[in-house]
Amino acid sequence: MPEASYDCIVIGSGPGGYVAAVRAAQLNMKTAVVEKDQVGGRCLNYACIPAKAVLRVADVLAEVKEAADFGIKVSDPEVDWSGVMARREKVIKTLTGGVAGLFKKNGIELITGEAALAGAGNITVDGSTIAAKTIVLATGSVKRPIPGTEFGGRVIGTEEAWALPEKPQTLAVVGAGASGAEIASAYARLGTEVTLFEALERVLPTEDADISKLVDRGLKRQGITIHTSTFVENIESTESICRYTHGDNKGEAEWLVIATGRGPDVDALQLDQAGVTRGNAGLIEVDGRLRTKAEGIYAIGDLVPGPALAHKASDEGIIAVEDAAGLETHPIDYPDVPRATFCTPNVGSFGLTEEQAREQGHDVVVGKVQYGAVGAGTVYGDRTGLVKVVGDKQYGELLGAHIVGTRATELIQELVNVRVLEGGYPEIARIIHGHPTLSEAVMEAGRAADGWLIHG
Ligand SMILES: Cc1cc2nc3c(=O)[nH]c(=O)nc-3n(C[C@H](O)[C@H](O)[C@H](O)COP(=O)(O)OP(=O)(O)OC[C@H]3O[C@@H](n4cnc5c(N)ncnc54)[C@H](O)[C@@H]3O)c2cc1C
Predict the structure, then answer these.
(1) SS3 242
(2) Is 455 a known active-site residue?
(3) Atom 52 of ligand 1 has which residue's CA nearest to it?
């Protein structure tokens, strides 16, 4: 006999799980969340939030170092690593405390322990059986090594990279996707000698080629040594150093970070017990409403296909429980999910790259504008940032947008909103933007695509 029963049980309290739980509670479901570690999931405790907290420190330091350009004299700033880590902890505590507060406010029960599926609408948590009409799996993802390598010693994953005991003198980062680029950019600006490796031919290889080019330039300006089209092999870790080879060369660093990808955290879940199936890359198979093959069981976030991003996990959580509650829902349009990379220069993008748009046979039009074309670029000190809009000429459709430079991660949202509200680049061109703001460069990119760029 189950020892407790709920309308909705969510397994995992990351941005997928906790948002699903709050929405379920709003829909009057008696809801509980099972978490084996810390409330807030990996996102708040080890990944997105600590990463951005440390990146913010690198941004502040870089600004202080550039203060002379703005007429401010500052003597040599120093990094106090214990202070950096203390602030990181404070940010995490504030935000995870906020999630615990949301649970309390919404009457959501938090059950501490490791959950597994037990079939017939039941789960077990450390030996106790709990029944639920709806079960949402939101257990996220775990680091994966590159073939022939194991984590351990001085070979670490991206989460550990944001919590190093001391600021390293040297760091090797394998994988120049979003996470690798962020780690490289933060540590290089904090004074670490960083080498960044990428097996494909450019950094941020899934971004538009123009964006990768500017990021490559920006990272090199921070002193980062970049090796693209390069495989790192023969990794050996000693107590104090990590050695490796790349091609015919040898390298060593205090820490080697593997930032090449993650896999779903399903080992403890006993998916087979309940008939939940997995497909490509071991991800759980779901339909557009996040329903697994097993009745009453949903899966969201890093467990399922689509970009492994916190905001995508949250949206899936909402769709899943709204569907369970019998509300009208619609599948996510995954190309419209914004992508944000918080290295310097910042990158924000969504939808198709220029290359993808051409491959798909669109009648492609591109509008490109540098931040320097509008007043704000010069006022705020970033003239090299770029807004690139990719459209289809026939109806002025906005197929994708790509921004690199100051606040790109914020600026991209406007373009996503216009697309989702069924606007195109001609609408962006005619929406009045405040002055002087970097968003005027977004408007100008719309005009460039529409053939009547004013500034430029
Ligand atoms: C270093 C790093 C930086 C990142 N930065 C960003 C970023 O800036 N923006 C962004 O959008 N995304 C970022 N991501 C990706 C983002 O962290 C994930 O997409 C997001 O955390 C997925 O959310 P989730 O709810 O699916 O799972 P998670 O956040 O992974 O949470 C899952 C939770 O489930 C718990 N759990 C697992 N198994 C069980 C079990 N059997 N029983 C009970 N509990 C269990 C875990 O302990 C964990 O707390 C980053 C990832 C990394 C690694």
Answers:
(1) strand
(2) no
(3) 47
